[in-house]
Amino acid sequence: MGFNYQKELIKWNQWKKQEEELLKALNVDDNIIKQLYDYDWEMFKTERRIRGRQDTTINTVLNNIPYYDKKEINTIDDLLSEIENEALFNYLSTIDKETLTIILLKIFGYSTHEISEILSLSHSSIYKKIHRLRKKLKNFKKVSKISCSNCLYSEGVKKDLLYIAL
For the CA atoms of 36, 40, 42, 48, what is the dihedral angle to 10 degrees? Predict the structure, then answer.
């Protein structure tokens, strides 16, 4: 449903009339009332321009509904708690915290250069840790015969961790 200019204009005029009567009852100067009227008129036109271009469809309404089901991953424990496969969880729990921190920072979108500055490690050691984890996860995948579709609970975690790991 689009913006109904006439309907909104009638509402605005009624509101301004009530406001003007109130201001006159409070003995406000006519110049101030006129300035207020001009300002409010400009704001009304601006809102009309914005709302007149908005196309509210069912898709945008549904996209604006808050999504509370997805848990944010902020720590290594959050990352591990999102893993549904018990064997993979136990396997990743044995990996050193520094490597898991690197993976977590990669999921957050940090580059290897930024991670090396944050953790005070060289670029090569970060690449080695990621490479070793990839190798271990590939071996784990072969040994445990798990499918990627049920490795991890969260789709985002699954995609990010498997991308980094493989």
Answer: -170
CA–CA separation, 84 vs 147, rounded Å? Answer: 12
Separation of alpha carbons 148 and 104, rounded Å? 19
> Can you read off the two tokens belonging to residue 13?
């005029």
Q: How many residues does the chain have?
A: 166
Mean pLDDT of 64-80: 71
What is the Rg, in whole angstroms, of the alpha carbon atoms belonging to the chain? 29
Burial of 152 (0-12, 13-18, 19+ CB in 10 A): buried
Q: How far is CA 112 from the centre of its chain?
A: 23
Q: 157-165: which pairs have CB atoms within 8 A and are 24 or more residues apart?
A: 157/73, 157/79, 157/82, 157/83, 157/107, 160/106, 160/107, 161/79, 161/103, 161/107, 164/103, 164/106, 164/107, 164/130, 164/133, 164/134, 165/103, 165/133, 165/134, 165/137, 165/138
Residue 65: pLDDT over 90 = no
pTM of the model: 0.47
User: What's the CA gap between 128 and 149, in Å, rounded?
Assistant: 27
Spell out the domain ranges in the chain.
Answer: 5-63, 76-165
